[in-house]
Amino acid sequence: MPKILQARLEQYMTRELSDIQAGFISGRGTRDHIANIRWIMEFIDYMKVFDCVDHNKLWTVLNDMGVPKHLICLLKNLYTDQEATVRTEYGLTEWFKNEKGVRQGCILSPCLFNLYPEYIMRNADINNLRYADDTTLMAENEDDLKALLMKVKEESAKAGLLLNIKKTKIMSTDTVNRIQIDGEEIAVMK
């Protein structure tokens, strides 16, 4: 069933995902983004991104991106009343209801995940480069970069995703001052 749904979803992904997404897309890779290297760049990392995708928001995203209602309904059925257990060094945990995130190891998960940040970046109206769950923002100066980062932070929060400031980095060909978000300083790479 996931393989059939994946084949159906791919036609919408090809149409809806912009050229800035290079992860999980046939014929695209990180080399496609190298030409943009002369800007101040912000490498954004999300906290536990695959585990935080809100299912109800995901259905809204799919609907807004033009995925037919019958496919969304099939996906809802696949995700409804999911239960999981986790293998630890002490054995298996108790079964629990899984109400967030995309399914680990499922061939549909990259498709579903790719549409989620696409929706966030469209709402933030930001040009960016993405490879799977890694996002790069580019700006010509620090003020523009901070403004972009704040827009992404706000739109991401609306979608239930939080930025991982400890893993978010700034890279610049010039000297750049430190930027703080919510009192946490973003590291500058040299």
TrEMBL record:
Signal peptide: none annotated. SUPFAM superfamilies: DNA/RNA polymerases. PROSITE patterns: RT_POL. Pfam families: RVT_1. Residues 1-190 form the Reverse transcriptase domain. Coiled coil: none annotated. It comes from the Eukaryota. InterPro entries: DNA/RNA_pol_sf, Rev_trsase/Diguanyl_cyclase, RT_dom. PANTHER family: REVERSE TRANSCRIPTASE DOMAIN-CONTAINING PROTEIN, RIBONUCLEASE H. This is Reverse transcriptase domain-containing protein. It comes from Rotaria socialis. The lineage of its organism: Eukaryota, Metazoa, Spiralia, Gnathifera, Rotifera.
